[in-house]
Structure to design on (58 residues):
């Protein structure tokens, strides 16, 4: 059986990274932040994508 992780909300990523939610939306607009996906009207993040993005930052 495949273990599925719950997607993170913008608020959860904001808290994890210590940045305002507005910053996440700016990063998305400029395509500079962690990869995100729109699920309907909602912005969601795959936790491993966020972790990978963090590891790539210098």
């Amino acid at each position: 059986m495949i273990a599925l992780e719950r997607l993170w909300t913008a608020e959860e990523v904001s808290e994890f990274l210590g940045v305002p939610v507005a910053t996440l939306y700016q990063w998305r607009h400029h395509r500079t932040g962690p990869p995100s996906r729109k699920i309907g009207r909602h912005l969601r993040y795959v936790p491993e994508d966020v972790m990978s993005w963090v590891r790539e930052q210098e």
Remarks:
- The longest helix spans residues 21-30.
- Residues 8-56 form one domain.
- Strands lie at 8-9, 37-39, 42-45.
- The chain has one domain: 8-56.
